[in-house]
Amino acid sequence: MSNECEIAIAGTGWGIYHYFLIILSGLLSLAEASTSLTVPIVAPFLLCEFKLNKDQATMPVATSSFGMAVGAFLFGSISDTAGRKKSIAVSTGIVFCASAGLSFAQTNFLINLSVFVLGLG
Q: Which residues constitute the signal peptide according to the record (predicted)?
């Protein structure tokens, strides 16, 4: 096998699309990391707002971690079969929908469900 492909890639260099994709991936990682860090901070406020016990208030933290574990396996296989472009678009849509659902959630179940779906993305 020859090195023609590597030579062509080295000759063309990086384009605007590659830089855009790296910036977009970085921003998405930052958004997901900030939501992962925000959930434990909000747990004491959930305790007071919804009159929950400590187990119920810390459940979104565990739910988020479980969602991330499931999402890693799920989107790993999706990106292998469908490609990274499609899986990034689907993951972005899931994160958007889960964030919107979390902002309007009024019950403990909906909060946990939204945090789980947010972890999936």
A: none
